[in-house]
Design brief:
This protein has eight helices and eight strands, in the order ααββααβααβαββαββ. With 216 residues, it is an alpha/beta fold. The protein has a six-stranded mixed β-sheet with strand order 3-6-7-2-1-8. Strand 6, helix 8 and strand 7 form a beta-alpha-beta unit. The longest helix has 15 residues. It starts with a helix and ends with a strand.
Length: 216
């Protein structure tokens, strides 16, 4: 049984205090994130055109220091790094959230939540000063997207989400990293099927290799 998020975060912070610490960006000792690497997380909002018809506003490129910090946040339980990543997500949200919009997130699988004890995207959204709603749920757990091509990614997440009924009004769906955009595109489709007429997509970071971007 997964522990409540506040307890999990407290345990992670306690372990961070007692165990040897290294910068998540460069590995320098005795600091969670050094000033130089924190500077590399300065928001760089951009609009990315990904899966056909999908436009995603992103806060950072997923490369170098940002990529290493995001991996540490998601994969090593270093939840305190959300504070340093949040400004980039906040900038992307500010650039794309219309008045009165509801904000939701791409949901984590049950297995991922049990493993981590927290939902990374929800933590980031809250740190960015927004209140996410759980409008989406997984119908099934998709396979790991890593290593899959564009078509395989789309097939892997086809019909994977179901959405609560949305009675009009804008909705913004948030993910952590966008690659091809297949997951976000499927989330957008599910929200539209549930009644949302204006659905926008935001991600903390984008993988540059597939980018066709224009500054926000």
């Amino acid at each position: 049984m997964a522990l409540p998020v506040p307890i999990t975060s407290a345990l992670h912070d306690a372990l961070t205090f007692w165990l040897p610490l290294a910068c998540a960006g460069c590995g320098d000792p005795d600091v969670s994130l050094c000033d130089g690497c924190r500077g590399d997380l300065t928001p760089r909002p951009s609009r990315q055109e990904r899966d056909p018809g999908l436009s995603v506003v992103c806060g950072l490129p997923f490369e170098g220091v940002p990529a290493r910090v995001i991996r540490a946040f998601k994969g090593e339980g270093r939840t305190a790094l959300a504070r340093d990543l949040a400004p980039a997500l906040a900038a992307a949200l500010t650039a794309s959230v219309p008045p009165g919009a509801r904000i939701t997130t791409v949901p984590s699988s049950r297995a991922a939540f049990r493993r981590r004890g927290y939902r990374p995207v929800e933590v980031l959204v809250r740190r960015a000063g927004r209140r996410p709603e759980r409008l989406l749920r997984l119908r099934r757990a998709p396979a790991d997207q890593r290593g899959l091509g564009d078509h395989a990614r789309r097939e892997n997440v086809r019909d994977v989400f179901a959405a609560r009924t949305v009675l009009g009004g804008p909705v913004v769906v948030v993910d952590d990293v966008v690659t091809t955009g297949a997951t976000l595109a499927e989330a957008v489709r599910a929200l539209r099927a549930a009644g949302a007429t204006d659905v926008r997509a935001v991600a903390l970071a984008h993988t540059p290799r597939r980018s066709t971007s224009k500054g926000e």
